[in-house]
Design a protein that fits this description.
heterotrimer; A mainly alpha (565); B alpha/beta (454); C alpha+beta (371); A: 565 residues; mainly alpha; two-stranded antiparallel ribbon; two-stranded antiparallel sheet; globular; disordered N terminus; disordered C terminus; C: alpha+beta
Chain lengths: 565, 454, 371
């Protein structure tokens, strides 16, 4: 059976644990493991840590690194290999994937194109920083200077002598073969860009005086930088790593404070929530253009942006309570989105406008944003089941089992059946099947609360002429509509433990180990609560914690350790 | 040793092997050089290699509406596979094939596909190497591309091709990009008279040494699973190296090779192509992809290919309709008079027409008195049998093409609950994989359908 | 900035199915007696056309390859020469010759800028009675049409008579005549949207005192996935009054008809700088999906209509098939309004246009709205 059904005690209110267990037990025909493991790890206990995981750079991380190093005008191109979602996060999937032959082919092409732009006549003066004695000949001194500088940012640590020397030699030989210093440099730079040390974030460990294994300074810098900025470390952070500052609480705190105060924190938060809310799926989202002509690719981008802006505004600008994301009526709209929501914009100057949905608009919280209801719908109709599943999985960190095999769907009639005008009626019929009822019970009531929002996020009062009933319940708490659902979700303990757990996994590229999980529950979550559920504070506490950097030796960390959680 | 020296060295090896005369001719020599299983092609390129492809669609076919009644040769064509009628003599139908789960949890729309294409359904849901990868290990290493994957939905994630749990061969979703990848500036026309090795390729190949040199130091730092992933990366890097080597040698002439039309030039607005699950766009993509793929095979740019017509669960849809093929399979009532689901079945027929379209392009490339289809083995299958109930029994399986005479065609193989792996094992043996058994537990088999192996 | 009194639409898509019912519901929900305003943005704007065989008994006017041959022969070229000149049609050696096919003092003259410089070749004009529009002058004359929808007689539509037997305009709704289609297709992506507000409505089926306001927006429309104007979008009204028209109207059995009005609208400088109607009328109906469809008739100066076509010159001729000087003479002949006090020749021609419009939110500048 899937070990994900093992509910961690702290993860859920009892009712949910039971619901999910029932869903797996009664209908899956599989063993349940509802044992509530409670091996206590006191907050002052040293947490064992977990294995280091080699993570493939995401598209955004790749792009940000290149933009920082060579400027935003450099065209990176694509396509990138698709990411893989594991344990609710692409960041965790990034720790489990490698690169196919076609992927290396593509990375090579991108690397070659980027390198060609860097050495291009119009850029070379600024980007290379030195001039060869003779442009038609190799110039090892200039090549070395350039490759050492960019290598440090691409590998997120200084190149070793042998790495640098082999790159200089490559530039030398390529310059000879191609009869041009710049083309030689281009070839050599391209190899840095296709190197696994650039394409994978690899963490190195050192054994300290006490015999403990810990991350080295540069690896700490990368961990911090990708967590907080979704980007490679900057000069200052690398310098701090080189000096050993990150190994002292004071030095670490100084850098974390600087990073959290930086505007780049927004990049980091955007990347995290893009991952957690599965916004990568917008790349392939399509809607029926006959039924929903307002939707197109650009609208999809704006839907995503609306929610990210709302999150950044709420969590950073307003320093708001994370839970209020599920109830806030403050958001940002464009003319196009306002048309989707069928609301007028007071000021329609170009671009994004702050907007507050009216109290009786039905819109409250990010669940009622088009991004959520649209992403978890079919192209031509809504899906309470998909929406409920996404809510359980993405926002509450629960795992809804796959539907069973050999299920009888015969009871579910098509949408033209006059007896079943609304989705609720159709689903109710379906869910009376014993085989299906367990799981639908944990998805549908929440999904049905969002039925006032059509497939693209527009508000509707009825379906096929019948008024929509948007009432439901979540873990035993009843509500009448989407706003009510948002309120209940806000007060659901799983929502807050989920985001703590996700941020931590995101920072490591793997699921937390047992002892880390316990630490998250007993320390991080408690502090999150005490801090008023402020995400920047949570980030700070994680990033300055000892736990976040604790590692266990690689070889004992077989992949199953992470997977078994 | 510099790169040019290495090339020279290899040339010397070739010269030694071939006795000198034809050394400067090029690619087939490289082929010989790489080929270790004794099926070397003649330097003239006269003996053309076999190619293998997969063609995937989601949501199976309706039981009773595709399996021929007659077993063996001269079988009858049932309605849902009617579009394949013109290719009957190239077609094998395998019915009654089943995926055994041995108590492992079924994953709708994935267990059946895993069984059919990877021969196993791991309990933890992890993916395994797919059959095309096993075959490409034998036949795929001598061309520019080890394999080529396309998804008619435009979604790179729609692929059945995997090298391992951690490496998926993602699909190309745009016909224009696919064309550019195969027939763009890096394409060396094998029939072109002049050939000049590109110093850039030479320099690049040489410079890659710097990356390869990092390998050992890196490996020492990693845990077991990361080591494996890094190894996979370096295997992929080796493919890149091979491509660069190929760029440096004049390719052998291939009589049937010509360049297809660039769809980027005939595309609609801004050369943008359809991406999504609307059936009309998917059909158009399949047509474009199939054509470019056939030309790529004819030009020996790859010998392994994978076409995904739909996503894993066939979310295909008609514009303006609230439902998808997938939803219809579950929710549409079985018409009492007809005995099947008319709207869902409409999609399966369109899908089979898509398969016929792909076959048409393979058959349209003439190679002497034969066609590309004759040396192709195209394996088409789905994620299950009767989609209405997520069945993993009676999974529809077809092969089209004669694999250069290695497989008998025009046959209906009727199994009664045999493991799907029997088909996969048969295909592997036909394509020269030295496998004597495939699959695990109830799906382990050492019995290919020897009656059709020629 | 303030919004119009009541936002354009207070209804969900579904309840707009029953317009009248929804209006009643709204009234009871708000303070009784409050009237409602709805905003719309124009989707497609075109010439109201109807192609019937009766309208063009002599057939349709020749296309450009035919009349170019005719003109070249008129200019003295032999048959063989004409064939040679025309062999690469639509481009070729003939192009400068037909462009300069006018003659002033015997010298070749640009015929598009000086259409009078060639003799009138004569056009087949609409001879039947089928034509959309309004009885603008209150009279029923021999040249007047019968509206195919309302069956009203005395319909003034001189423009239709002039263009209705060209290949380009000989077409019926829901198809659009090619040239206005192309014009609008470009205009609406680059110019401010054409807005319509219907205000002071207490009852959407019968109300004898409502106000129709035509405005131009600062904002351009956006297109949806089907190429139509996106519904429910917000538009700011151009604060200058250059394009504003306010007219009283009545709704009877769900059909709205305006009083006569004059309108001016700053249109697309690349097509026709100003769309100016005199003695205009409009009738419109509300559709189930919340959109509306309207006919707009009135007198427009005919020379600007000619210039809007003639600026395309030879390209216009061979792409639309319309013979520009011939069209010039036809418009001049059929002009039926506003005689020049000096020459007595009419300076305006009656015409009918149609458009559909989708629900929109309209934002007025405060200064204007508070008047």
């Amino acid at each position: 059976m899937r070990n994900v059904f093992k509910k961690k005690a702290w993860l859920g209110a009892a009712a949910v644990a039971l619901a999910l267990a029932a869903c797996s037990q009664a209908d899956m025909g599989t063993k349940t493991a509802t044992t509530t493991s409670k091996e206590a790890v006191a907050s002052n206990t040293v947490v064992a840590g977990g294995p280091v995981v080699m993570r493939r750079l995401t598209q955004k991380q790749y792009e940000q690194t290149i933009a920082d190093l060579f400027g935003k005008d450099i065209i990176v191109g694509g396509p990138f290999e698709p990411d893989q979602r594991e344990a609710g996060l692409l960041a965790v999937g990034a720790g489990q994937v490698s690169v196919a032959a076609s992927g290396v082919e593509q990375y090579n092409k991108m690397g070659r194109n980027i390198a060609a732009q860097v050495v291009d006549e119009k850029n070379r003066t600024v980007l290379i920083g030195c001039t060869p004695a003779n442009a038609k000949q190799p110039d090892d001194a200039c090549a070395k200077q350039f490759l050492a500088r960019v290598g440090k940012f691409l590998y997120r640590r200084p190149l070793t002598d042998s790495e640098l020397n082999s790159r200089v030699a490559a530039a030398h030989e390529a310059a000879k073969l191609r009869g041009n210093f710049y083309l030689g440099l281009e070839t050599s730079l391209a190899t840095l860009l296709v190197s696994p040390q650039f394409l994978f974030v690899q963490e190195a460990t050192v054994t300290d005086k006490k015999g403990n294994i810990r991350l080295d300074g540069y690896s700490k810098a990368s961990r911090l930088s990708f967590l907080l900025w979704n980007n490679a470390p900057d000069d200052e952070l690398l310098a701090a790593a080189a000096k050993g500052d990150l190994d002292t609480p004071k030095g670490l705190a100084k850098q974390v404070d600087r990073m959290i105060a930086s505007p780049r924190l927004e990049d980091g938060l955007r990347a995290f929530f893009t991952d957690m809310l599965e916004f990568d799926r917008y790349e392939t989202l399509s809607k029926d253009s006959t039924l929903y002509p307002k939707f197109n690719f650009k609208v999809g981008e704006e839907e995503k942006e609306q929610t990210l802006r709302t999150i950044v505004d709420h969590l950073i600008t307003r320093n708001g309570d994370y839970r209020d994301l599920f109830t806030t009526r403050h958001t940002y709209l464009t003319r196009t989105l306002a048309a989707i929501y069928e609301v007028p914009l007071k000021s329609v100057n170009a671009g994004w406008q702050p907007y507050e949905f009216a109290p009786d608009s039905g819109h409250a919280g990010i669940l009622t944003h088009a991004s959520f209801v649209s992403l978890h719908s079919h192209p031509g109709r809504t899906s309470p089941t998909l929406r409920g599943k996404a809510l359980r999985e993405a926002l509450l960190c629960q795992r809804v089992p796959d539907p069973p095999g050999n299920v009888n769907f015969a009871i579910v009639q098509d949408t033209n059946n006059p007896n079943f005008k609304t989705v609720r009626q159709r689903l109710t019929a379906h869910a009376t099947e014993a085989m299906c009822t367990g799981c639908h019970k944990i998805m549908d009531p929440m999904g049905l609360a969002l039925e006032n929002f059509d497939t693209v996020g527009g508000y509707r009062k009825d379906e096929n002429g019948t008024k929509i009933d948007a009432s439901g319940e979540l873990d035993g708490v009843k509500f009448n509509d989407a706003a009510g659902l948002g309120q209940v979700l806000r007060n659901n303990a799983n929502a807050t433990s989920c985001v703590v757990n996700r941020i931590y996994s995101y920072g490591l590229g793997r699921k937390p180990t047992k002892s880390e999980t316990e630490w998250l529950k007993t320390v991080a979550l408690k502090n999150f609560e005490a801090d008023g559920y402020k995400i920047p504070m949570l980030l700070k506490r994680i990033a300055t914690s000892d736990t976040f950097f604790r590692v266990i030796p690689a070889d004992t960390a077989a992949p199953k350790v992470a997977a078994a959680q | 040793m510099s790169a040019s020296e290495r090339i020279a060295t290899r040339r010397r090896v070739l010269k030694g092997m071939m006795g000198g005369a034809a050394v400067t001719v090029g690619l087939p020599l490289l082929d010989c050089f790489l080929n270790t299983n004794g099926t070397a092609m003649a330097a003239t390129g006269a003996s053309v290699p076999n190619v293998f492809g997969t063609w995937f669609w989601g949501c199976g076919l309706t039981p009773g509406r595709w399996e021929p009644s007659k077993v063996g040769a001269n079988f009858d064509i049932k309605p849902e596979i009617a579009p394949l009628e013109p290719y009957k003599k190239h077609l094998n139908v395998y019915s009654g094939m089943k995926a055994y789960l041995d108590g492992k949890p079924p994953r709708p729309h994935s267990s059946g596909r895993q069984a059919a294409f990877s021969g196993d359904v791991p309990a933890d849901g992890k993916e395994l190497a797919s059959i095309d990868s096993l075959i490409s290990d034998v036949i795929g290493g001598r061309t520019r591309f080890r394999s080529l994957e396309v998804a008619c939905t435009g979604n790179p994630r729609d692929t059945v091709s995997r090298r391992s749990a951690t490496v998926a061969n993602s699909s190309e979703g745009s016909a224009a990009r696919f064309y550019a990848r195969v027939f763009g500036p890096e394409f060396k026309d094998p029939n072109s008279a002049d050939f000049k090795p590109d110093p850039r390729a030479l320099a690049e190949k040489s410079a890659l040494t710097a990356v390869k040199e990092e390998r050992i130091a890196l490996m020492n730092q990693l845990g077991a699973s990361d080591k494996q992933r890094l190894d996979e990366y370096f295997t992929s890097l080796r493919e890149l190296e091979k491509r660069l080597e190929l760029e440096l040698v004049k390719p052998a002439p291939v009589a049937a090779c010509s360049t297809p039309k660039d769809p980027g030039k005939t595309a609609g607005e801004n050369g943008k192509y359809y991406s999504g699950v609307d059936i009309d766009g998917v059909i158009e993509n399949n047509k474009l992809f199939s054509q470019i793929m056939a030309y790529a095979l004819a030009c020996d740019q790859t010998r392994v290919f994978n076409i995904s017509f739909s996503d894993a669960q066939s979310s295909l849809r008609k514009a303006g309709d609230t439902t998808t093929h997938h939803i219809l399979t579950h929710e549409e009532a079985i018409d009492e008079k007809l005995g099947y689901q008319p709207r869902a079945t409409w999609f399966t027929t369109v899908i089979m027409a898509g398969l016929a379209e792909t076959v048409k392009h393979l058959a349209s490339i003439r190679e002497g008195d034969k066609t590309l289809l004759d040396r192709t083995l195209l394996f088409a299958s789905s994620d299950g049998g009767f989609a209405k109930i997520h069945s993993t029994e009676n999974i529809p399986m077809f092969t089209v093409g004669g694999a250069g005479g290695r497989i008998k065609t025009g046959m209906h193989i009727q199994a009664k609950g045999d493991a799907v792996t029997r088909v996969g094992l048969t295909l592997q043996q036909v394509m020269g994989v030295s496998a004597s058994s495939w699959g695990t537990m109830s799906m382990q088999t050492s019995k290919p359908f020897s009656e059709i192996i020629a | 900035m303030v919004f119009n009194r009541v936002f354009g639409r207070m209804f969900s898509r579904a309840s707009a199915l029953s317009v009248a019912g929804a209006a009643v519901a709204l009234m009871s929900a708000q303070n009784a007696g409050a009237s409602e305003t709805r905003g719309y943005a124009v989707n497609w704007f075109t010439v109201a056309t109807i192609a019937t065989p009766k309208n063009c008994p002599k057939g349709l006017n020749p296309l450009s390859d035919d009349y170019y041959k005719r003109e070249l022969k008129r200019l003295g070229y032999k048959d063989a020469e004409v064939e040679k000149l025309m062999k690469d049609f639509p481009s070729g050696e003939y192009v400068p010759l037909v462009t300069m096919r006018g003659r002033v003092d015997g010298k070749p003259t640009n015929v598009f800028a000086n259409p009078w410089s060639q003799p009138d070749p004569g056009l087949f004009l609409v001879e039947g009675k089928d034509g959309y529009g309004f009885n603008l002058d209150g009279k029923t004359g021999p040249n007047d049409f019968v509206d195919p929808e309302t069956k009203e007689t005395g319909i003034d539509n001189g423009f239709w008579r002039a263009v209705g037997c060209t290949h380009n305009y000989h077409i019926s709704a829901p198809e659009y005549a090619n040239y206005p289609y192309a014009q609008w297709d470009g205009t609406r992506d680059t110019s401010g949207a054409w807005l319509l507000e219907i205000g002071g409505v207490d009852n959407w089926t019968n109300d004898d005192d409502v106000t129709v306001t035509i405005d131009k927006a600062i904002d351009v429309i956006q297109r949806d996935a089907n190429g139509n104007t996106v519904r429910d979008m917000t538009f700011r009204v151009d604060p200058s009054s250059r394009s504003k028209t306010v007219v009283k109207a009545k709704i009877k059995n769900g059909e709205l008809r305006t009083d006569a009005f004059n309108m001016q609208f700053v249109a697309d400088p690349g097509v026709m700088p100003e769309f100016k109607l005199k003695n205009a009328k409009m009738r419109l109906t509300f559709k189930q999906d919340g959109s509306l469809f309207a006919y707009l008739g009135g007198y427009h100066e005919w020379l600007p209509i000619y210039w809007s076509m003639a600026q395309g010159g030879w390209t216009f001729e061979h792409s639309t098939g319309i013979d520009l000087p011939a069209q010039y003479y036809a418009l001049k002949k059929l002009a039926d309004f506003d005689p020049d006090p000096k020459t007595g020749e009419n300076r305006a021609i009656s015409g009918t246009w149609s458009f559909d419009a989708v629900p929109a939110y309209i934002v007025h500048p405060e200064t204007v709205a508070q008047k």
